[in-house]
Amino acid sequence: MFDVTTTSPTHWKYISEGGASIVFSYVGPSNQAFNHTALRLRKAPLETLNESLSEEQQLEDPDDPSIAFQHQVIERLLPEEFLPRLEGVHVNRAWLEGLARIADEHRPPERKARDAVDTRKKKATLATDLVGGKGLAVEIKPKWGFLPSATHLSSETAPVKTTTCRFCMHSHLKATRGAEVSEGYCPLDLFSGDADRIRKALTALWDSWVSTGGSSNNLRVFVEGQMLRPSATPSSIQPLADQLHLSAEENFTLYTVRDAFISRTLPMLLQTSVLRILAVHQSNLDALDIEGLVHLWARAYASRTPGAALTTGQPEGDDAPPAPPLGASMPQPTLDEWSAFLDVYINKHTQMDHDHPDIANLRYYCLAYLLSATFKDCSLIIQAPDQGLGAVTIIDLDVKPIDRLDKWGKLDREIVEAYRQAGRPTQCVAN
Ligand SMILES: [Zn+2]
Question: Which portions of the sequence form the region Disordered (predicted)?
Fold first, then answer.
């Protein structure tokens, strides 16, 4: 394991932070181990920082669970060239305190009032620095790239769910609640492999990126490590125009920058096999749709409980007890269980009869759905330099908690019901 304390804290530049962690980019002298890397550190609430960690916590201090999940699960499903380097590194208190002092002047005041670098930690996460480097980096959250098969859908939901993709339906529900959505963006276009349709998807992503001032959830643009915040004024995206060599022209507009942006990124999305691989896993792992999974769950429960109803939630009329909520009291899979799951998924999944799922495979299908959710919620980073080779990398492939299954089932019903009632469905084009 590398020891990051061999570098000076001044060689790390503050990049950004979220609720639980804070990220730095290596800017020191050339160093085989740390060139082009980012360091992710855990934060802790201010009031807890003076408490010492229990002996147990000190002994454990486990690596970030996303590191083990990536190495043991994700790397079996995606080619390594598409994944960031991700590993644990040693840190110590004195070094972290030095870094925390340097970070302080760059941190947003509202964050500083709440938390700080957890200086009690002995380990941190080192990852490929995908946005902090030179040039243009684009982050796209593509979402669901497939339409479900009708096999396990009800007669009410099948016409809607096989016509309109999940993202377009969900956007509709969010918009009726006043949330900002990427209007006009359909993931099936982005995943299509067709130049015209990818252009359409990028155009829609760009337009909602501009109209939401950069807060739309599906596109982010970084130039030289800075995240851009577009406005209606073209100068708000001057660094991007510079990257795309538009600044020499007297009057670049949002539209000329958009066209140049698409010309830079579109060829990379056409050439990469990332999107195809991602869509295959998303759809294979979601073989039953959440509706089929709910039904399998109810069947499995009824087979164990004579007289139980074949429904989840409220009993329907008779006195039979309903099945408990989907996934209730199921333990989160361990890494060993994930490995065993992958042995089956990789070798046998395509030969299994998913039209008639066996209740003995309930746990298998629950894990499969959980993993499909990871692939539905990840992001792509497109590094699109002016010259030289670009790269497309997949990030945020974290494991999801299994207790979300029930929420996903309910959300699915809510999304489809709202969409059915709205009438006039969008025809998404299947791939
Ligand atoms: Zn769609």
Answer: 308-329
